[in-house]
Design brief:
Blueprint (H helix, E strand, L loop, with lengths): L9 E10 L2 E8 H21 L6 H35 L3 E3 L2 E7 L5 H14 L3 E9 L2 E8 L1 H7 L3 H9 L5 E4 L3 E5 L6 H7 L8
Parallel strand pairs: 4-5
Antiparallel strand pairs: 1-2, 3-4, 5-6, 6-8, 7-8
Helix pairs in contact: 2-3
Length: 205
């Protein structure tokens, strides 16, 4: 190279601090820089095409991000509302065994927060509650255990111990608090067995 002018395009890709008063610059030049610029131009044109030729790309993308965020929040609210509505339906599955109100069912909700919300909602409705939910969220099996506080203090039950025992059937593990615990696993085919096993964990009156 006879002169710096022969470098041609000079495109800075990044810059960062190396030491006090020292900056590191990474750049590409000549053909590599030209190819990079062409590629970036093509991507911008593709994006403009997706946005129907809108010239204000930054503003349009920002508006789409904001709209997507709002839709996600609305969807989350709808899911939480649905989980609250399910509580009365869930209570119909209750069986009383040895003075303990047992609810052991599979619930169809899209995320763990909704399942937790439903468990606490049912707890507010039912005394002496021994609740077990099985779930399949994004094809991953899960278990939720909720106990009334009096069953913990008077019967010596512990949700963490219970969920760990139940999780063996889905090849998983978990834990939590004495009155509320969750577990995840690998074997979704074991979920029916989890619900069958629950009755054997209820203490004799």
């Amino acid at each position: 190279m006879q002169a710096t002018g022969q470098i041609g395009y000079f495109k800075i890709l990044s810059e960062s601090a190396v030491a006090a008063g020292v900056r590191r610059i990474e750049a590409i030049t000549a053909d590599a820089a030209e190819a990079f610029i062409i590629e970036q131009s093509q991507e911008i044109n593709q994006l403009r095409g997706l946005l129907k030729g809108n010239k204000d790309l930054a503003g349009t993308v920002s508006a789409l991000i904001e709209e997507n965020s709002k839709l996600k929040k609305d969807a989350e609210k709808a899911v939480m509302a649905r989980s609250g509505d399910l509580k009365h339906e869930i209570v119909h599955h209750m069986k009383t065994i040895n003075g303990i109100n047992l609810i052991a069912v599979q619930v169809d909700l899209p995320n763990a927060d909704a399942v937790k919300n439903l468990a606490f909602a049912v707890k507010d409705l039912v005394d002496n509650l021994f609740l077990v939910f099985t779930t399949l969220i994004e094809d991953k099996p899960g278990i939720t255990v909720m106990l009334s506080e009096n069953l913990v203090s008077e019967k010596g039950l512990n949700a963490s111990n219970i969920v760990r025992e139940l999780a063996k059937d889905i090849q998983g593990g978990g834990g939590g608090q004495p009155f509320y615990a969750t577990a995840g696993g690998k074997n979704k085919d074991g979920l029916p067995k989890v619900l069958e096993k629950v009755v054997s964990l209820i203490p004799v009156a």
